[in-house]
From TrEMBL:
The keyword Cell membrane does not apply. The chain crosses the membrane at residues 92-113, 120-141, 147-169, 215-241, 253-270, 282-300, 321-345, 365-388, 442-461, 473-496, 502-523, 535-556, 562-580. Pfam families: AA_permease_2 (PF13520), AA_permease_C (PF13906). This is Cationic amino acid transporter C-terminal domain-containing protein. Residues 1-53 are annotated as: Disordered. Its main location: membrane. Belongs to the amino acid-polyamine-organocation (APC) superfamily. Cationic amino acid transporter (CAT) (TC 2.A.3.3) family. Residues 16-31 have a biased composition (Basic residues). It comes from Oryza meyeriana var. granulata. One of its GO terms (molecular function) is amino acid transmembrane transporter activity.
Length: 605
């Protein structure tokens, strides 16, 4: 649908002499692989020891700027050793809800309400609306590439280039690894608290079992239960997607039922006078609350990573993404209205506000339900998080950017066994030995990076340079001009976020907004857009542009150490790619016979 952009390589890089057609075959490739290697030999960086520095740089640029040629239907049928399509639309919706709603629904709603007052309800509505913009972008791309796993990494590879896709993967994966370990420790702590409801166990469970006991001045924090829980969930995921989906379905339904019961129990204790004033600290406190609770919705993107396991992906993936997000918005808003109506917002506790509110009303049985709901919520969040990680590793293993062992799928269980065990082991080590809660302030970088790039992917993949009547600016192609506009919008969003965070002069924020609008006009009127197959995000390019701007505004609200982490990890990722990825990547991996991509089934009912 889109034309390949003019090469981004400088002239000196494009004018390099042709390298000999050396082949690098994988032992499993066979004759077809030899032909593929012959065809792609000119696109691979030279690995000769006699290469000069300039040759290495030009080869690196050529490799880094490769794009993945994927079409929605051009996939090989499975040879019996691939992922299987077993997830229907109901399972996909519950997958998204399970990833999004953890114990936070019982905690963050009250903690933010202490600052925003009853207006926290508006905070969740605003954050939900912002997430809907991202979800619309994910829904379009999930429908456009329904046959291959990879999520944000895959979309970036197809829309931009190989190096950017690898950078997105590394940022996402650090969030996932640390997040899984942190959730596992929280789950272990909640599980121990739940056990201590039994009288003879109360106060007799050692701290090193579930709460964590520090050694060596806090450098090591031993937690035995967290790795055990991770091993159990990893085993379930390794056994099969049908079984792990059944566990997620049961736990998510249990969690939803508990939330609904809690809401109905609280409705009868609501005093509407507690809702006045509705925004006691002004609208700015509500907006600040929205930037905090935005991350409570994170998880709907997990549905996009189940592309190869959805029964009718082009239809069901958009429904799963948007349906799960809207369900989460309704549940969060209901809990906010109840908790701020039951108790004056000034009296809400910090650690367990919802439980304390019900205890103050004499409804202690509800606090038990809340504990069960918290355990169920953390379990599903952790389960889906481990599931998504393994599918991302599977995608990179297939593309050669990671060792081939990550690409292997069990012949009978149809799960990426090696990838799943790897992510489980990493999380178990982190959760068992370190207090990863201390690293929470550097999280969410990968999430916002992925959301921003995915929104930009929707725009670039809609471009059709063949029909544009606009002339390029100087040596810059229309495609490059569009990418530059996207970068300007992202930078303006970040600057506006800094102005808001540090209370700089409003004029600076207005200037940043005006520059972003000018770049948006250029994208609107200097590019030609085509409608994609399947689900189509409305309002392109406006909706994705607003999404990019708001995501970067949120990026500016993160802890400063999160910015340092973004830069340092990006540099490390470039080093890994330069030393390994550029030499082992298989640009045409979707045509590889050893990769068991399942074709897209008929969407007819």
């Amino acid at each position: 649908m889109t034309q390949e952009p003019t090469s981004l390589l400088p002239v000196w890089a494009r004018a390099t002499t042709r390298r000999p057609k050396t082949t690098r075959r994988h032992p499993h490739h066979g004759a077809h692989a030899a032909a593929m290697e012959e065809e792609g030999a000119n696109h691979r960086p030279a690995a000769s020891s006699s290469s000069s520095g300039g040759g290495f740089l030009s080869g690196f640029c050529a490799a880094a700027l490769r794009r993945k040629p994927i079409t929605a239907h051009a996939t090989h049928a499975a040879s019996g050793e691939g992922l299987v399509r077993q997830l229907g639309v109901f399972e996909l919706v519950l997958l998204g809800i399970g990833a999004s709603i953890g114990a936070g629904i019982f905690v963050v709603t009250g903690t933010v309400a202490r600052d925003a007052g009853p207006g926290v309800t508006i905070s969740f509505v605003l954050a939900g609306a912002a997430c809907v913009l991202n979800a619309l972008c994910y829904a379009e791309l999930a429908s456009r590439f329904p046959a291959v796993v990879g999520g944000a990494y895959l979309y970036t590879y197809a829309a931009f280039n190989e190096l950017t896709a690898f950078l997105v993967f590394t940022q996402l994966m650090l969030d996932y690894h640390i997040g899984a370990a942190s959730i596992a420790r929280s789950l272990a702590s909640y599980f121990v608290q739940f056990l201590e409801l039994i009288p003879f166990l109360k106060g007799h469970i050692p701290t090193w079992i579930g709460h964590g006991e520090e050694f060596f001045s806090g450098v090591v924090s031993v937690n035995i239960l967290a790795p055990v829980l991770l091993i159990i969930l990893t085993a379930i995921l390794c056994y099969g997607v049908k079984e792990s989906s059944a566990v997620n379905t049961f736990m998510t339904i249990l969690k939803i039922v508990i939330v609904i019961v809690v809401v109905f129990a609280g409705v009868f204790e609501v005093d509407i006078s507690n809702w006045s004033p509705f925004m006691p600290n002004g609208f700015k406190a509500v907006v600040t609350g929205a930037t905090v609770v935005f991350f409570a919705y994170v998880g709907f993107d997990a549905v996009a990573n189940s592309a190869e396991e959805a029964k009718k992906p082009q239809r069901d993936l958009p429904i799963g993404i948007l349906g799960s997000l809207l369900a989460c918005v309704l549940l969060y808003v209901a809990v906010c209205l109840v908790i701020t109506g039951m108790v004056p917002y000034t009296l809400l506790g910090e650690d367990a506000p919802l439980a304390e509110a019900f205890a103050a009303k004499g409804l202690k049985f509800v606090t038990v339900l809340i504990s069960i709901g918290a355990v169920a919520g953390l379990t599903t969040t952790l389960l889906v998080g481990l599931y998504v990680q393994s599918r991302l590793y599977l995608g990179l293993g297939r593309d050669g950017l990671l060792p081939l062992t990550f690409a292997k799928v069990h012949p009978t269980r149809h799960t990426p066994l090696h990838s799943q065990i790897w992510v489980g082991c990493v999380a178990a080590v982190l959760a068992g030995l370190f207090n990863v809660h201390e690293l929470s302030h550097i999280l969410s970088v990968g999430t916002l990076t992925g959301y921003s790039v995915v929104s930009a992917c929707v725009i670039t993949l809609r471009w059709n340079d063949k029909t544009t009547s606009c002339h390029s600016l100087g040596s810059m192609s229309i495609w490059q001009e569009g990418v530059l506009c996207l970068v300007i919008i992202a930078l303006c969003g970040f600057v506006a976020g800094l102005c808001y965070r540090f209370s700089y002069a409003t004029a600076f924020m207005i200037i940043a907004l005006l520059i972003a609008v000018a770049a948006g006009f250029a994208l609107q009127f200097r590019q030609v857009y085509v409608d994609p197959p399947g689900f189509s995000c409305p309002g392109v390019p406006i909706v994705p542009m607003v999404s990019v701007f708001f995501n970067m505004l949120l990026f500016a609200q993160l802890h400063e150490e999160a910015w340092y982490r973004f830069v340092i990890l990006s540099l490390l990722a470039v080093g890994v790619y330069a030393g390994y990825g550029q030499y082992h990547a298989v640009p045409s991996s979707s045509d590889h016979p050893a990769v068991a991509y399942h074709g897209i089934p008929s969407e007819a009912p």
